[in-house]
Design goal:
Number of domains: 1
Structural class: mainly alpha
Largest sheet: none
Radius of gyration: 31 Å
Order of helices and strands: HH
Distance between the termini: 85 Å
Strand content: under 5%
Number of strands: 0
Shape: rod-shaped
Length: 83
């Protein structure tokens, strides 16, 4: 199977209509477009993963801050009972 099916189709249509299509150039452009689509998809997936990890880290920070605040309260209460 060809890696440039859209160009192949356009080429067949052009021959039937007696028009010339710069086939090799069109194939090159189609391949480059397909490669760029793959790159964009990979970057989108990587971006989504980074976003998820950032959200996980933010949740961890909030949890640690809550634990810190709770520890401060306990320390304050212990300090007041020892007076």
């Amino acid at each position: 199977m060809s890696d440039t099916p859209e160009t192949d189709k356009a080429e067949r249509m052009a021959y039937s209509q007696e028009h010339m299509v710069p086939t090799e150039f069109a194939r090159q452009l189609e391949r480059e477009r397909n490669q760029l689509r793959e790159i964009v998809e990979q970057r989108l997936l990587a971006g989504a993963e980074i976003h998820q990890r950032a959200n996980d880290l933010l949740r961890m920070v909030r949890m640690l801050e809550e634990q810190r605040d709770e520890a401060h309260k306990i320390i304050e209460q212990l300090g007041q009972t020892n007076k």
